[in-house]
Amino acid sequence: MINPTSYQALLLHALQKGDVIRKTLISGPSVGCEELSQDGQLLAWRYDSEPDWETGEVLTELLQTDVELVICGGGHIALELATYARRLGYHTTIIDERKEYCNHERFPSESCLCAPFEEVLECKQTWIRPYFVIATRGHMFDQVCLQKILNLPHRYIGMIGSKTKVAATFSNLLSLGFTQAQLDQVHSPIGLPIKAVTAAEIAISILAQIIQTARLTPQAVQLDRNLLTHLAHSRQSYVLARVIEKTGSAPCEVGFQLVVFEDGTVEGTIGGGAVEAKALETAKQMQKECTIAEQVAVYNLSNAKASELGMICGGMVRVLFQRW
């Protein structure tokens, strides 16, 4: 079995290139065994000898990371975008060579890269297939950004600009060898057609389109990029609790993860509340007692049984506990 750090590092690296398929046994004698694949190729596995996948229930997931927004240009649209993206919990990066438009006073919670667009977009970044919004101060800067971004891994490209300027940009890029299929990926006009006028309205229309794009594959699991990065570099053992099924209105999604490290620190979430508290108890106990087997726990939140957890929101949550 590949060691936990290498396994998570392989997953992180693969996600920078595209979606990953995770297959996990969630019942039977080999509960917790899993493997990762991409484009039909096996990437990594979590077992000493391959289990019989027919002996238990198998969960197959399409893995992505949570939304990461990269905004080219730090003007008034970017300011509104960053404000609303913050509320959505998105990781946001601002690129602009003008210090007065790209600083932590203006963007207190965002990553600010104050350098020429071309320079930033040519350098290796830690982004994982981000959502790009091109909102620069001029037509030529738009073209520079789009020319570089089309060759980068991405899940969305949107560009602000008049029909005339966008058409000119596309024409120039076609003459440089880009294909119409590549340009067809670009959302321009950008945003959902809600007749937005103000900067705030335009930002909302753009984020609505990004949400729509992110949710196009309803079964996709969006992993927490920060937690995954931590696991890919951690030298500690840990117990990982992750949601493998959810029904009703429980405040979580399939793929939510909570980790208890050997030093007792906790990172991640499976939705908070009483379910998370119970899961945390189990994970901490497993961390203390190595004889406790990997397992799946079911938390019933229906009105009939909710009193067990002090919740009546309805539904059910299944959580898989694994040792790493």
From TrEMBL:
Residues 69-210 form the XdhC Rossmann domain. This is XshC-Cox1-family protein. Gene3D superfamilies: NAD(P)-binding Rossmann-like Domain. Pfam families: XdhC_C, XdhC_CoxI. Residues 232-288 form the XdhC- CoxI domain. It comes from the Bacteria. The lineage of its organism: Bacteria, Pseudomonadati, Spirochaetota, Spirochaetia, Spirochaetales. It comes from Sphaerochaeta globosa (strain ATCC BAA-1886 / DSM 22777 / Buddy). InterPro entries: FAD/NAD-bd_sf, MoCofactor_Util/Proc, XdhC_CoxI, XdhC_Rossmann_dom.
